[in-house]
Amino acid sequence: MQDEGRKVEKLSVLCEISLMRNHLALQNVANVPYRLIRNVLMKLKVEHLCKLEETNSTLIFEDEEVWLELLKKDFPLHVQETFVRKKDDICRFYLSFVESHNPALLEDEELIKNLLKYAVRKDPNTYKYRIPSRMLYFKYQDEVLRKQELSTKRLRLRMQEIQQEKQRNQIVPLEDPVYCEKKTKPVRSSLADRSDLFVKSYKEHQRRQLHFKSGGFDITRRPVKRVAFGGQVGTALHTSLPSAPVSPPPAFTSPNSKLTTSPTVPQKRPSSPSKVKRVQPPSIFLKRRKPQLPMVPKNKSPASTEPKNKKTVVVKMNSANTNKKKSSIFKTPSPQEQILKDSEHPSKAYIFDSTHR
Description:
By secondary structure, this protein is mainly alpha-helical. It has eleven helices and four strands.
């Protein structure tokens, strides 16, 4: 009872299921109609499909949907309907395939006409002939291969250029060294076409180059001219000179006290034989100014200028130190001596010795 209720599949369906399970082992489909193996062909790849079409040339006129699926899968950006005005190229495509794989089929002209009429149809909207998907697939495949070949060729040429550049830049040992001078660019003779700012900066640069031609100013190489003390300041003496005693400065006392002076001996300093000793003028602090005397009118005589009660001028000096040699400081006459020289009556001047008190 159970066997009577089970539905038995047709033999063609069972064969199709077996073929689909073992589609990779399919090698020959000669004299098999397209409607029986349609589902099997939908599972095949391009290489396998082309081999089966070679065994049965009539499949290319009917397997348009199979190639359309392959076109969508491999070239998704180029899936569009393409039309041409003339059908000669399409007919030539089919006939060349049949001629190369099954030339005996061309003897039946009526069969070839029916197959071409079924495959090549005019579109009612555009009135053009649609290019089959199989033809477009191989066209796109050829374009991809051509692009790959071009890219490979460009890559090969680029690698050759890089290799040649490496060979040119390679360091090669030379037997004799070659010294090349650096070539400088010639300076433009005319600056008329330049801006004022450029001309100014260029001239300033030339002046700076002339100024710092010897490397710039170096203070350590500056020549030093020594003048003080015969040019021996700052130089090391090889011989030790005896130290001369330093005399104290002269002491000035009041007029009522004793006037004591000590003679000073000028020290002789060693002079360098290579340098000339500079003669300096005497210091202004060693000179004494002369006292200013009252102006005498020209119409009066000198006697009238003398006061009636003229007092005697007393100069006190130490007799013990009068014979001593005075220092050069006292070569200038003192104010008292100057009064004695200018006085007209020297008899009225008396000198007393302070020792007789």
